Amino acid sequence: MKLELTDAKKWINLFVEKLENNQATLNELDTAIGDGDHGTNMDRGAKAVTDSLTKKDPDNLADLYKATAFAMIQKVGGASGPLYGTAFLDMSKAVKEENIELSDLIQVGTDGIKRRGQSDVGMKTMIDVWQPVSDSLRADKFDQSVVDNALSKVKDLVATKGRASYLEEKSKGHIDPGAQSSAYLFESLIEVIGA
Ligand SMILES: [Mg+2]
62 C-alpha to center of ligand 1: Å? Predict the structure, then answer.
Protein backbone atom coordinates (compact mmCIF):
# COMPACT_ATOMS: atom_id res chain seq x y z
CA MET A 1 0.00 0.00 0.00
CA LYS A 2 0.97 3.61 -0.47
CA LEU A 3 0.26 6.44 1.92
CA GLU A 4 -1.41 9.33 0.07
CA LEU A 5 -1.15 12.99 1.06
CA THR A 6 -4.37 13.28 3.10
CA ASP A 7 -3.50 10.23 5.20
CA ALA A 8 0.13 11.27 5.50
CA LYS A 9 -1.01 14.61 6.94
CA LYS A 10 -3.27 12.79 9.42
CA TRP A 11 -0.30 10.61 10.36
CA ILE A 12 1.96 13.57 11.13
CA ASN A 13 -0.78 15.43 12.99
CA LEU A 14 -1.55 12.42 15.20
CA PHE A 15 2.16 11.98 15.93
CA VAL A 16 2.46 15.62 16.93
CA GLU A 17 -0.59 15.23 19.20
CA LYS A 18 0.87 12.15 20.90
CA LEU A 19 4.20 13.89 21.48
CA GLU A 20 2.43 16.80 23.16
CA ASN A 21 0.24 14.49 25.28
CA ASN A 22 3.12 12.26 26.35
CA GLN A 23 5.81 14.82 27.05
CA ALA A 24 6.02 13.78 30.73
CA THR A 25 6.30 10.06 29.92
CA LEU A 26 9.13 10.67 27.46
CA ASN A 27 10.96 12.86 29.97
CA GLU A 28 10.61 10.17 32.63
CA LEU A 29 12.00 7.49 30.32
CA ASP A 30 14.92 9.77 29.44
CA THR A 31 15.52 10.58 33.11
CA ALA A 32 16.09 6.87 33.83
CA ILE A 33 18.78 6.32 31.19
CA GLY A 34 19.59 9.73 29.70
CA ASP A 35 19.35 13.42 30.50
CA GLY A 36 15.62 13.74 30.98
CA ASP A 37 14.77 16.05 28.12
CA HIS A 38 13.40 13.85 25.32
CA GLY A 39 9.78 14.76 26.05
CA THR A 40 10.54 18.47 26.23
CA ASN A 41 12.62 18.29 23.04
CA MET A 42 10.02 16.35 21.07
CA ASP A 43 7.22 18.60 22.31
CA ARG A 44 9.17 21.61 21.02
CA GLY A 45 9.59 19.81 17.68
CA ALA A 46 5.90 18.90 17.61
CA LYS A 47 4.89 22.54 18.02
CA ALA A 48 7.35 23.57 15.31
CA VAL A 49 5.87 20.98 12.92
CA THR A 50 2.35 22.27 13.59
CA ASP A 51 3.51 25.87 13.10
CA SER A 52 5.19 25.02 9.82
CA LEU A 53 2.25 23.04 8.42
CA THR A 54 -0.21 25.73 9.50
CA LYS A 55 1.86 28.48 7.92
CA LYS A 56 2.12 26.61 4.64
CA ASP A 57 -0.18 23.64 4.06
CA PRO A 58 1.92 21.26 1.88
CA ASP A 59 0.28 20.21 -1.39
CA ASN A 60 2.53 17.20 -1.97
CA LEU A 61 4.17 14.42 0.04
CA ALA A 62 7.75 15.60 -0.51
CA ASP A 63 6.95 19.03 0.95
CA LEU A 64 5.06 17.50 3.89
CA TYR A 65 7.96 15.26 4.89
CA LYS A 66 10.50 18.01 4.23
CA ALA A 67 8.65 20.52 6.43
CA THR A 68 8.46 17.88 9.17
CA ALA A 69 12.19 17.18 8.82
CA PHE A 70 13.20 20.84 8.99
CA ALA A 71 11.04 21.53 12.05
CA MET A 72 12.57 18.52 13.82
CA ILE A 73 16.14 19.42 12.88
CA GLN A 74 15.74 23.05 13.89
CA LYS A 75 13.78 22.62 17.12
CA VAL A 76 14.24 19.18 18.69
CA GLY A 77 17.95 19.32 19.41
CA GLY A 78 19.91 16.55 21.15
CA ALA A 79 20.52 13.40 19.17
CA SER A 80 16.87 12.88 18.27
CA GLY A 81 16.39 16.04 16.19
CA PRO A 82 18.96 15.11 13.54
CA LEU A 83 17.83 11.46 13.56
CA TYR A 84 14.11 12.16 13.04
CA GLY A 85 15.11 14.98 10.70
CA THR A 86 17.26 12.71 8.55
CA ALA A 87 14.54 10.05 8.43
CA PHE A 88 11.91 12.52 7.19
CA LEU A 89 14.31 14.31 4.85
CA ASP A 90 15.29 11.02 3.20
CA MET A 91 11.61 10.06 2.99
CA SER A 92 10.87 13.42 1.37
CA LYS A 93 13.54 12.76 -1.28
CA ALA A 94 12.20 9.24 -1.85
CA VAL A 95 8.69 10.48 -2.73
CA LYS A 96 9.90 13.40 -4.83
CA GLU A 97 9.24 11.88 -8.26
CA GLU A 98 6.43 9.50 -7.34
CA ASN A 99 4.91 7.96 -4.25
CA ILE A 100 6.47 4.69 -3.06
CA GLU A 101 5.22 1.68 -1.13
CA LEU A 102 4.76 2.41 2.58
CA SER A 103 7.16 -0.40 3.54
CA ASP A 104 9.83 1.13 1.27
CA LEU A 105 9.15 4.59 2.69
CA ILE A 106 9.68 3.40 6.27
CA GLN A 107 12.80 1.49 5.22
CA VAL A 108 14.22 4.65 3.66
CA GLY A 109 13.63 6.45 6.97
CA THR A 110 15.17 3.57 8.92
CA ASP A 111 18.25 3.54 6.70
CA GLY A 112 18.61 7.29 7.18
CA ILE A 113 18.61 6.87 10.95
CA LYS A 114 21.15 4.04 10.73
CA ARG A 115 23.44 6.15 8.55
CA ARG A 116 23.11 9.37 10.59
CA GLY A 117 23.48 7.60 13.95
CA GLN A 118 26.03 5.08 12.70
CA SER A 119 23.92 2.46 14.39
CA ASP A 120 21.91 -0.65 13.66
CA VAL A 121 19.32 -2.96 15.19
CA GLY A 122 19.98 -4.37 18.66
CA MET A 123 21.67 -1.27 20.09
CA LYS A 124 18.60 -0.15 22.07
CA THR A 125 17.65 2.81 19.90
CA MET A 126 14.71 4.02 17.83
CA ILE A 127 15.95 1.68 15.06
CA ASP A 128 14.68 -1.24 17.14
CA VAL A 129 11.17 0.08 16.49
CA TRP A 130 11.60 1.41 12.92
CA GLN A 131 13.15 -1.77 11.48
CA PRO A 132 10.49 -4.24 12.72
CA VAL A 133 7.76 -1.85 11.53
CA SER A 134 9.31 -1.73 8.07
CA ASP A 135 9.73 -5.53 8.00
CA SER A 136 6.16 -6.18 9.10
CA LEU A 137 4.75 -3.71 6.56
CA ARG A 138 6.64 -5.57 3.85
CA ALA A 139 5.20 -8.88 5.11
CA ASP A 140 1.73 -7.31 5.36
CA LYS A 141 1.70 -8.08 9.10
CA PHE A 142 1.87 -4.62 10.63
CA ASP A 143 -0.33 -3.97 13.65
CA GLN A 144 -0.15 -2.85 17.28
CA SER A 145 1.48 -6.14 18.36
CA VAL A 146 4.54 -5.28 16.23
CA VAL A 147 5.01 -2.02 18.14
CA ASP A 148 4.34 -3.67 21.51
CA ASN A 149 6.80 -6.50 20.82
CA ALA A 150 9.45 -4.06 19.61
CA LEU A 151 9.16 -2.01 22.81
CA SER A 152 9.33 -5.04 25.08
CA LYS A 153 12.46 -6.25 23.23
CA VAL A 154 14.03 -2.79 23.48
CA LYS A 155 13.43 -2.83 27.22
CA ASP A 156 15.55 -5.98 27.66
CA LEU A 157 18.43 -4.78 25.51
CA VAL A 158 21.69 -3.36 26.85
CA ALA A 159 22.37 0.00 25.21
CA THR A 160 25.48 0.11 23.04
CA LYS A 161 24.75 3.44 21.32
CA GLY A 162 23.83 6.86 22.65
CA ARG A 163 23.96 8.29 26.16
CA ALA A 164 22.35 5.19 27.71
CA SER A 165 25.35 3.09 26.61
CA TYR A 166 27.40 4.64 29.45
CA LEU A 167 25.12 2.78 31.85
CA GLU A 168 25.99 -0.56 30.23
CA GLU A 169 24.07 -3.39 32.02
CA LYS A 170 22.09 -0.85 34.06
CA SER A 171 20.35 0.31 30.87
CA LYS A 172 18.53 -3.04 30.84
CA GLY A 173 14.92 -2.95 32.01
CA HIS A 174 14.27 0.55 30.67
CA ILE A 175 12.53 1.53 27.44
CA ASP A 176 14.68 3.77 25.27
CA PRO A 177 12.92 7.16 25.03
CA GLY A 178 13.57 7.44 21.27
CA ALA A 179 12.09 3.98 20.79
CA GLN A 180 9.01 5.13 22.71
CA SER A 181 8.58 8.32 20.66
CA SER A 182 9.01 6.19 17.52
CA ALA A 183 6.29 3.90 18.89
CA TYR A 184 4.00 6.97 19.03
CA LEU A 185 4.86 7.67 15.39
CA PHE A 186 3.85 4.17 14.31
CA GLU A 187 0.80 3.97 16.58
CA SER A 188 -0.30 7.11 14.77
CA LEU A 189 0.24 5.29 11.48
CA ILE A 190 -1.90 2.38 12.69
CA GLU A 191 -4.71 4.80 13.53
CA VAL A 192 -4.54 6.19 10.00
CA ILE A 193 -4.30 2.97 7.98
CA GLY A 194 -6.43 0.93 10.36
CA ALA A 195 -3.91 -1.92 10.67
MG1 LIG B 1 17.98 13.54 26.22
Answer: 29
**Could you tell me the distance, in angstroms and rounded to a whole number, from the CA of residue 34 to the centre of ligand 1?**
5
Strand, coil or helix: what is 2? strand
- Total tally of structural domains belonging to the chain: 1
Positions of the chain with pLDDT under 50: none
Q: What CATH number did the domain enclosing 51 receive?
A: 1.25.40.340
pLDDT at 163: 85
- Exposed, middle or buried, 24 (CB in 10 Å: 0-12/13-18/19+)? exposed
113-145 tens-digit pLDDT: 999 999 999 999 999 999 999 999 999 999 999
Q: Which of 24, 132, 116 is nearest to 73 (CA)?
A: 116
The reply to whether the predicted model has a pTM over 0.90 is yes
Across the chain, what does the average pLDDT equal? 96
Q: pLDDT value at position 78?
A: 84
Give CA–CA dist 4/80, Å, rounded. 26
**Angstrom distance (rounded) from CA 151 to CA 89:** 25
Range of the domain at 176: 5-193
Q: Which residues surround ligand 1, an ion (CB under 5 A)?
A: 30, 34-35, 37-38, 78
Q: How far is the CA of 38 from the centre of ligand 1 (A)?
A: 5
Measured CA to CA, the distance from residue 185 to residue 10 in angstroms comes to 11
3-state secondary structure (DSSP) of residue 35: coil
